[in-house]
Amino acid sequence: MYPKIGVTTFGPALNACGCGCRGKTRPSHWLPSGYVQKIIGNGGIPVLLPPLPELHVDTIIKSLDGIVVTGGGDVSPKNYIKNEDTILLEVDRAHGIDTERDLFELALAKSCIANEVPYFGICRGMQILNVALNGTLHVDLSDDKKIPEDHRKPEFGGCIEHHVNILENTELLSIVESDRFIVMSNHHQSINQLGRDLSVTSISDDGSIEAIHHKSNHSIFGVQWHPEVEGPDQFYNDLIFRKFIGKCNVKERKVNLKKYFMIL
Known about the structure:
Blueprint: E1 4-8, E2 10-13, E3 28-30, H1 33-41, E4 45-49, H2 57-63, E5 66-69, H3 87-93, H4 99-115, E6 119-122, H5 124-132, E7 137-138, E8 160-166, H6 171-176, E9 180-185, E10 190-191, E11 198-204, E12 209-214, E13 220-223, H7 234-247, H8 257-263
Parallel strand pairs: 1-4, 1-5, 5-6, 6-13
Antiparallel strand pairs: 2-3, 7-10, 8-9, 8-11, 11-12, 12-13
Helix pairs in contact: 4-5, 4-8
């Protein structure tokens, strides 16, 4: 059997359905096709997930074999900044906050950790994993004064190419078997304080964290770049997708609610 992979979606956005409704508002949950193509092409069956109430997360985890949390808008600073004096200012600096999506994806990440369900976080999805484990983010990458490079294009949807360095003795190095390659990148937030039980497995030339793995469960990890976007070194990204889908064993899952609530 092919593993069923839950993939989180963008939206709802107006006029994203492409049905030719001539400007009428028709909100749609949507997803760039690259995510779907990479999952199918590497042996999985994608199941698209709109944001759902937290009470449905246990049902999702029992019915799927792995989760991909995709890119998109910023994770709200309300989820990781505790200073009440600055939080409203920080929220104003963020782009595209979707509170419903934040709550859903954070619950998914915590449930995957509690129930040892494979989790692959892409861009925003890596940041969600970090925040789920009490890590923090730079609201804007420029906040980290050590990082001189730009990791995104100003126009929506554009990616830039840059190198990432895979660290020695890491799970990621065992997957790609290369210590350096080119990725497609588009983000303006980045990891600040690393979440508990996480380790850094890749950094860019300017020192920005580019990949993380859970220390005790290597099937839970994230990358900051966009492996679903075709680039000059796509071979290595396909290896990552293939390895992740290979870890998504098809079996009945019993949700560990006790451990889940310990992560909250």
